[in-house]
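Supplementary notes for students who missed Thursday's class. We covered one full example, reproduced here. Read the sequence, then the structure, then the short commentary at the end.
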Amino acid sequence: MIDDFQDIILKNFEVEEKDMKVNEFILQFNLDGIDFDLLPATNMAAVAYRSDTVQAQSEQMFAKIRQARDPHQAAYVSSSGLTEAAVEFIKQQSQFAHKVARLTKFWNASIVYTGKKISGRSSIMELLGIAAAKQVEKDNPRKPSILEAFKCFLKKVENISTQRVAFFEMFYQKSDVPPRIWNQTPLLLDPTNPWNNFMKGFSPEAQSFFSRCAQNSLELLQKVEMQYSRSHGYPALIQVFRPQPVMRNQVSGVPKPTENIISVRHSNKMQPILLMRRCSPEQEKFSEAFQKSMSAFIHMANLQSKRSTAGTDVKQLVQDTIDDTFHGSKRSWGPSFSKHEDCDVTFEIPVANGQSFLISSNYN
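Structure (token representation):
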């Protein structure tokens, strides 16, 4: 089946086979700047002949997994069959939890992580955000604070190595969790699959890295709260979503750029674009992570610019962020005689009103 879908995509879209990642369980590819994971799933709900298809699918999948010779392996192979349940779980959360989860996704994107890929990283941060939102809603049901929930999330990430989080509310109970999974720490149980601990792929090195980043954010947040004003709210809050950690001394094989160019132009692009012309493997890995981080930061800065009565110079924020990231101090940004298309690396990051930021760097 995977082979059939691969043939369909190659014939109908501008995707090259060398850019696809394929195995017996998944087909991964990028189309127009959007990453796709295509996984086949068995429709078990049709067998149950019930109207509540999501719940029926989950129950049938659980029964199939329990009957397998190796339930843990069966749960891994069958996880795509629980995708609709995962979507339903998120849909059933409160509006407050949705807002907090969205903030956590932007924070996660701000982290320039170049280590071994963390499977389910986005889901981990989203679920920790939902757990934080639930905790704050429980403590203050009448008027829960998004800022308090965000701080609660950051504290969970700061102490990620000791977290034990589970959601027994929709698809299974504690008694359904196998002891070998329940006894693991850190633990973040998949809300739709009691055999899946999302933390299993979160290495001790990655835990330490994200813990430090969360600690940095909490310290920044404390400073931001001290600058609160009735008229402008938290004007410095955007600083919490700047790319981190500061890269000038922390990424092996990635030198400081000798030149940066920033401009804004009209564009109909919908997704960020990254062009790497002359880069080492280390630079490529860093550029991919930094581009995602800058995309999230620019989006947040643009939102603040629209909502702040004080106004926000997004281009100046981007310049200051690049200076701090690579050089540790502000520099003079005068006219450049270089062109974006001649630089080693170029990001194009769409914002609003048909405009894009172009950010280019030279390393030689």
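Commentary. DSSP finds twelve helices and ten strands in the chain. The longest helix spans residues 281-307. If anything here is unclear, bring it to office hours.
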